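Onboarding guide, step 5: your first structure request.
Type a short instruction followed by the sequence, for example:

Predict the 3D structure of this protein.
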Amino acid sequence: MEVMFRSNSQQAIGAFVLGLGLLGAVDGIVFHQLLQWHSVVMHTDRHGQIESDGWFHLATTILLAWGAILLWHGGRDGFARLPVRQLIGLVLLGGGAFNIVEGLVNHHWLQIHHVKQGDPHELWYDVAFLVWGAVMVAIGLELCRKRFRQG
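The system replies with structure tokens like these:
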């Protein structure tokens, strides 16, 4: 893992945090708002669902801002800029980590919601969500490794 962070570690952490926030925001926009498949907390009334989604969106917005600030700050004071391939790899690692943790905790362990709540195939949607997270992590790791093999 240390190999991935040869550039400024603040930038690397910022890219990872940005990925967490970005995938959280995409999850909230696509699954919560556009498709309306679920809310963060499904086992409550509509007001509770809207409120739980609001807290979720606030958290993802904070992660996005924090990641952007770390990236910006890490690129100052003469530090080497994070290579684009590594930036994308770290964002994918953060996004994949979001999917894996959110999927395991909320969908499987706590069962506070599922990707497509109430669907006869909801387990397969939950598994696909985890697989997509694992794919993002694998691609992210490969992008970070390639940078250092070639350079």
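Each response can be followed by summary notes, for example: Residues 1-6 have pLDDT under 50 and may be disordered.
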